């Protein structure tokens, strides 16, 4: 069974995810933990700051693509554990 992360995330969050949504999906305990991972370059998808808005945002498609990469049957245990480490950082 193949998981379609994009459909699930897009129906829940729309085309853009804020920091709280990213934390929820990737199981970061706090937004501060997400920000620390971002500062260390541990996020494997693009995040942006928007003028006039607090926090960081990411395209839902980028987050879904990242999840697809770490959960794909073709990814080795190395890629899966790297994704798990990234998701648990903080």
Number of domains: 1
User: Mind summarizing the main beta sheet?
Assistant: 3 strands, antiparallel
Radius of gyration: 13 Å
The low-confidence parts are: 79-90
What is the overall number of helices? 5
Describe what this molecule looks like in 3D.
The protein has 90 residues and is mostly helical. It has one domain. Helices cover 56% and strands 10% of the residues. The relative contact order is 0.22. The radius of gyration is 13 Å and the shape is globular. Helix 1 packs antiparallel against helix 4 (60-71) and helix 4 (60-71) packs across helix 5. It contains five helices and three strands, in the order αβααββαα. A three-stranded antiparallel β-sheet has the order 1-3-2.
Task: Provide a quick synopsis of the model.
By secondary structure, this protein is mainly alpha-helical. It has helices spanning 5-13, 19-26, 31-39, 60-71, 77-88; strands at 16-18, 48-49, 56-59.
Secondary structure layout:
Elements: H1 5-13, E1 16-18, H2 19-26, H3 31-39, E2 48-49, E3 56-59, H4 60-71, H5 77-88
Antiparallel strand pairs: 1-3, 2-3
Helix pairs in contact: 1-4, 4-5
What labels would you give this structure?
3-stranded antiparallel beta sheet; single chain; 90 residues; 56% helix; 5 helices; disordered C terminus; mainly alpha
